[in-house]
Amino acid sequence: MNLVLLHDDDFTAEGLVTLTGRRLQHVLEVHRAEVGDCLRVGLLGGLMGEGRVRALTFDTLELEIRLDQQPPAPMPITLLLALPRPKMLKRVLQSVTSLGVKQIYLLNSYRVEKSFWGSPLLQPEQLQEQLLLGLEQACDTILPHIHLRPRFKPFVEDELPLISAETNAFVAHPVA
């Protein structure tokens, strides 16, 4: 975690946040932060800055924050991807998010097993969890948009021409 992502419900007062759970454990075990240390922080969907540790216990972390930096500009890349196996999808989403991709289309294709579309990982909460992990690594606060397209032909005929208009389009295929 290169950036501690903050959510609106983390705020306890103006400029003060309290963290628990996975983010607290990461700060304790990886950053090994102590009272007075500064950490990079960012408000999900908003500004970035730094947070100074005011109080730290095994249950809570209290940070005094200052948000004064814009998140990085999005990469001008739209990724179209045949839906991979659920285990791979987790890694792919984290990786492309950490690279700054903000538009991700998950498509059906001839080789995609129908059962993949029923995976619990495609639920919005599960997708967001993977995207948040990627944002933390990217030091970014703006979530990518994921578009699920289980019907290939209508997507290629109706949407793809609009998405790829006036862009460079590349096809990456392991056999090609």
Structural notes for this entry:
The chain is α/β, with parallel strands linked by helices. The protein contains 4 helices and 9 strands. The strands form 2 sheets. Strands 1-4-5-6-3-2 form a 6-stranded mixed beta sheet. Strand 8, helix 3 and strand 9 form a beta-alpha-beta unit. Helix 2 packs parallel to helix 3. 19% of the residues are buried. The model has no long low-confidence stretch (mean pLDDT 94).
Key phrases:
alpha/beta; three-stranded parallel sheet; 4 helices; elongated
Task: Give a quick summary of the entry.
The chain is α/β, with parallel strands linked by helices and 176 residues long. It has helices at 21-31, 86-98, 124-138, 152-164; strands at residues 4-6, 11-13, 16-19, 38-43, 48-56, 61-69, 78-82, 103-107, 145-149.
Oligomer: single chain
Shape type: elongated
Structural category: alpha/beta
Q: What's the total helix number?
A: 4
Query: Numbering strands along the chain, what is their spatial order in the largest sheet?
Result: 1-4-5-6-3-2
Largest sheet: 6 strands, mixed
Computed Rg: 19 Å
Residue stretches low in confidence (pLDDT < 50, at least 5 long) are none
Terminal-residue CA separation: 36 Å
Number of strands: 9
